[in-house]
């Protein structure tokens, strides 16, 4: 016998021909094709006149009702075979069977007694199953698909019963039409109910879980910690490994109410990109800011920050990212978050409303973090140290860059030249011009000069007239 899936494909192929026809004629022709694709029902010469569709369908269902358990098992097996998300948890599988049985029993009663399915309430087990799926973060698509697969299998079983009963072709067609219409209406109506239950439970469950998760994380950050393995189990996060903390936010509400969803999606993609050992830990700090931790193996630590930065810079829809540094254990979990907080404080002051990615290891960030992210007076200090060299002009920017590279190269013109892609004599000229612009020899406060150059490079906005 050709499966019910084949008949559905036939249904789809016919829709472009039948869409403009009256509904009753269209449904009847579709059902005739379904019967034909399922193997046909030869007319029996001596068969009695066809019964009314309702009574014929009721008679078939009456014969099947003693085998509800068998029907339930068949439907459940199809659902579990096709939808991997619904397999694995024994309690969920048991509840799935109760849900299937409740739906099958309700459909049978509706068909047998001519009950309008539009007024039927979802079975208790079906409602509870939707709640449990929400609590396990199973997608609602899996729930809807389960209902559709269940309908297909139930129709196959009904038609097998029709064939076994030896009814004529017209009677078989009428029974199938009646059953198809009743189950379709039932699935549409019940799906709305269970999906709404799923949505409400998901919101409630996530809010409760976020609240518990937030309390646990904040206790760790405050230094109130218990046994590391117990904490790892509660958080579903491997605290013994290296952690790379990040703070995520959108400078502007580009996603309207979907900011947190966008940030969580980015964190999961970033964790996969940098080679996380398990799923990252995501915590909504408020409606526009999120905290995250990415678990890393020892072999993934090197290069993780760079890879994360590059991914954020390439993705134009990514949130702003402040990145800590990989650290191990519970202490590392806390310290990496502290570094990310420092980086964010600096980034907010420097970037304003622009999207940005900042790492605690970036030049100048540690120094700014030592000031607790307060750069409100940095422009005054930088101008005091650099003099006219701190002017926001393109020529001064070139001179500052040349001087910084020269100092980082150990004050060696020869070592600085290839780094700047310049001739040695050109480097000497630029360094001399930079010293002249400053108005004092480099030896006078060299450490201050290097710090001021770092701040100019990392936060060029502090040189602008409207910095405050």
TrEMBL record:
Chain segments annotated as coiled-coil in the UniProt record: none
Residue intervals of the CdaR GGDEF-like domain: 228-345
Stored InterPro entries: CdaR-like_regulators (IPR051448), CdaR_GGDEF (IPR041522), PucR_C-HTH_dom (IPR025736), PucR_C-HTH_sf (IPR042070), RsbRD_N_dom (IPR025751)
PucR C-terminal helix-turn-helix domain ranges (all copies): 399-454
Domain RsbT co-antagonist protein RsbRD N-terminal: 70-211
PANTHER family for the chain: CARBOHYDRATE DIACID REGULATOR, DNA-BINDING TRANSCRIPTIONAL ACTIVATOR ADER
Entry similarity comment: Belongs to the CdaR family.
Protein name (Swiss-Prot/TrEMBL): Sugar diacid utilization regulator
Organism of derivation: Tsukamurella paurometabola (Corynebacterium paurometabolum)
